[in-house]
Amino acid sequence: MKKMMFALFVLINSVFVVSAQSDTLSVTLENVPYPYPVKFLPLKIEDQDLRMAYMDIKPVVKANGRTVILFHGKNFGGYYWTSVIKALIGKGFRIVVPDQIGFGKSSKAFIHYSFHQLATNNKNLLDTLGIEKVTVMGHSMGGMLATRFALMYPDKVEKLVLENPIGLEDYRTFVPYMTAEEEYQKELKTTAESVKKYYQNSYFPEWKPAYDYLVEIGAGVTGSADFPRYAKVAALTYMMIYEQPVCYEFSQLKVPVILFIGKEDRTIVGKGFISDSEKAKHGQYQVLGKETAKKIPNCKLIEFDNVGHIPHIQIEATFLKSFLETI
Q1: 2-326: what fold?
Q2: Where do the structural domains in the chain lie, given as residue ranges?
Q3: Count of CB atoms within 10 A of residue 68's CB?
Q4: Beta strands in 63-200, from DSSP E residues, in sequence order
Q5: Which residues pair with 42 in a beta bridge?
Q6: Strand extents, DSSP E, 164-314
Q7: Which SUPFAM superfamilies does UniProt cross-reference here (predicted)?
């Protein structure tokens, strides 16, 4: 009888564990479907063999001879570009969508993260694919990377498109310094509730159920046995953003720039470390957009009222119409 009771207890407990972990994602998102086939570029960085995931999507109509590369934000991967990809391939563009090293389906490496290194990785990818010139579009952190890429490789960039980029201000001037270890300990405390709260307070003026999948992916990795590695990489990439501003170099851009700004965006990297009075002075995209556009020699600013951090999701049709008209 005791053996039967113990066996029943183990069975019930096992069922509970499986159920509790049913929403767990791997830290390289193997169980997250991407809209198009994913390939991998082998890279060797700091004597480590790494893999950079990417999608390479051909146009579904007559090719126009142009290519767009899409750079995702810090909390995202290639999965959230679906509507943009479909719109562009329907107009004859070839689209390349990388997951940067440290993000999405790519390797979660313990390396020194820098926008220079990430830009070099993407140059490597484009060279491997035989692509000589691209329009570079970057959202959020991807905007910082896209800016660095355009500064490093201006001859390879046809146009630079920035969608609510972070780094429009130097966070070091008002966000207290945190060591990578301190940031790592903070990342370890991530929950679905904390992810959703941050997205609600910074990204979207009004939350809709359609945005829940962003939270499910963003928080799904916390149940993985490899989550500490994921959290460590998240801390290292936070330090990259904090320590490597691009806002002082906007005036050096030599390519045409289109700057899309959702004016209700309130994103601040390190927002949880500053007072309410500091929050009121920073992350004000209705001001930052105009200030940034003035710094860039050849910039077209397009602003959206009542729109937050991710225009291509919040106002998909409106954003895509404007996007296609300007690129």
Answers
A1: Rossmann fold (3.40.50)
A2: 2-326
A3: 24
A4: 67-71, 94-98, 134-139, 157-163
A5: 51
A6: 257-262, 299-304
A7: alpha/beta-Hydrolases
Token readout for 70 is 């899409």
Q: What tokens appear for 210 in the block?
A: 């359609």
Here the tokens at position 231 are 């959290």
Burial label for 245, CB within 10 Å (0-12, 13-18, 19+), is middle
Look at strands 157-163 and 48-57 and give their pairing: unpaired
The secondary structure element, H or E, covering residue 286 is helix 285-295
Predicted confidence (pLDDT) per residue in 278-322, tens digit: 999 999 999 999 999 999 999 999 999 999 999 999 999 999 999
Strand partners, 234: none
- Structure tokens belonging to residue 25: 């994602």
Residues in a beta bridge with 162? 138, 259
Is the model's pTM score more than 0.90? yes
Query: pLDDT tens for residues 204-250?
Result: 999 999 999 999 999 999 999 999 999 999 999 999 999 999 999 99
Q: Is residue 29 a contact partner of residue 72, using CB atoms and an 8 Å limit? A: no
Show the tokens assigned to 154. Answer: 């201006």
Q: How would DSSP label each residue in 1-26?
A: -HHHHHHHHHHHHHHHHHHHTTT---
Which of 111, 229, 103, 235 minimizes the C-alpha distance to 181? 235
